[in-house]
Specification:
415 residues; alpha/beta; Rossmann fold; Helicase, Ruva Protein, domain 3; 2 domains; six-stranded mixed β-sheet; 46% helix; mitochondrion
Length: 415
């Protein structure tokens, strides 16, 4: 009898010990371990969230490629050991690549195409021929070998507001290639050496997702001229960037360059390091728009805006000489507010409630609306606008001397 009691006590003790051990294990795993991990790695939660967001972002890009008839693979034609392309499920990204993967932009998220850009047809055609086609359809250029491969770098430079960033957006939208919109903050880390690891992750991720385009806006701020008094970390980042960009691993075993293009935009080309410029053989100047480009920009910006029957778009295109595309857009925005402002004031002066406003009663935009703005000096007085509408075709030789080479009529201001 005593033996049975002793066995029962040992059984109960064993069960209690087992339950206690399991309970301690779960408590340690669910409460203590995350707390210790947070103390050891404060960014652990951020890295886990970045991994989930990066995976979701890449899944969206894969679905886009499936819709375009691609098999949803990433990488070059010979990326896999068996000659097959890497699939989304086969991609293994480290914590740094997951951070960079958050900067991968899906083409459907960019509502800008080449048709939305006024002018710059020559640059657009060359961008298609030298970047988009070699990246997305390499079989068309296979007869030329490495000579017809996409350039390792492309630089868009020119005055601010002339469409450099818009061109990059259009390239991302039209190409369908993996587009990494690299920000300065992405490469900035508080831990020494982490910035170099992020730079390496940019190129390793681009290689896994190729064809890829790495876009750096204001590239002069990231890869500017190296100086003797520069901070050590900044110099190391530039050196790492150049080594991976055009180093020993920039080609595959067959000697064919990776289908990776670094696309930069700047308005301070002289501040970019010479070694960086050497790695960007394709350089496209994006100047201020000429008369035809301004006309096209006005047509695109005004679009379906209600206009007065006597609205003179040609005249507006001529008087905006020297303005960038961004300036023209803002001028159109200010002009479009004039009829709306007039209608609101008239409606308010009549004592009617603002809830009864009818947008159809707002008049169309007039040429005069581009002249003068509340709080700013007007381009011209409305009374002399009509006298300025001199056609360059019907002008006399005397009038022709007052017309500049780009069609802008130089009219003296009246006191």
């Amino acid at each position: 009898m005593s033996d049975q009691k002793r066995a029962a006590r040992e059984l109960v003790s064993g069960l209690a010990l087992a339950v206690g051990t399991v309970s301690i294990f779960f408590i340690f795993r669910e409460i203590v371990a995350p707390y210790i991990a947070k103390l050891v790695d404060p960014d652990r939660e951020k890295h886990e969230q970045a991994q989930l967001k990066a995976k979701a972002n890449l899944q969206r890009i894969r679905r886009r490629r499936l819709q375009n008839g691609d098999e949803g693979g990433f990488g070059g034609d010979d990326e896999g050991s068996d000659g097959s392309r890497l699939r989304m499920e086969d991609l293994v990204l480290n914590e740094y690549e997951n951070q960079v993967a958050l900067e991968v932009v899906a083409p459907e998220d960019i509502p800008v195409g080449f048709d939305d850009i006024g002018g710059l047809e020559d640059i657009i055609e060359e961008l298609k021929e030298s970047i988009i086609y070699p990246l997305t359809m390499p079989h068309l250029y296979r007869h030329g070998g490495a000579l017809l491969a996409a350039p390792s770098g492309v630089l868009l430079y020119g005055p601010p507001g002339c469409g450099k960033t818009m061109l990059a957006k259009a390239v991302a939208h039209e190409s369908g290639a993996s587009f990494i919109n690299l920000h300065i903050s992405t490469l900035t880390e508080k831990w020494y050496g982490d910035s170099n690891k992020l730079v390496r992750a940019v190129f390793s991720l681009a290689q896994k997702l190729q064809p890829s385009i790495i876009f750096i806006d204001e590239i002069d701020a990231v890869l500017g001229t190296r100086r003797s008094g520069e901070h050590e970390a900044s110099g190391m980042v530039k050196a790492e960037f150049m080594t991976l960009w055009d180093g020993l691993t920039s080609t595959n075993a067959a000697g064919v360059p990776n289908r990776i293009v670094v696309l930069g935009a700047t308005n301070r080309i002289n501040d970019i390091d010479e070694a960086i410029l050497r790695r960007m053989p394709k350089k496209f100047p994006v100047p201020l728009p000429d008369l035809e480009q301004r006309r096209r920009i006005l047509q695109l910006v005004l679009g379906n805006t209600k206009r007065d029957p006597e609205f003179n778009l040609e005249y507006i295109a001529r008087i905006t000489a020297g303005m960038s595309g961004s300036d023209i857009k803002e001028a159109c925005r200010d002009a479009a507010m004039v009829p709306m402002r007039e209608y609101i004031r008239q409606h308010r002066a009549s004592g009617q409630a603002m809830s009864t406003v009818n947008p159809d009663d707002v008049r169309g935009i007039r040429t005069e609306d581009f002249f003068g703005r509340r709080g700013a000096r007007p381009y011209a007085e409305p009374a002399v606008i009509h006298s300025r509408r001199v056609s360059t075709v019907d002008a006399t030789p005397t009038d022709q001397s007052k017309v500049s080479s780009d069609g802008y009529e130089e009219v003296e201001e009246e006191d």
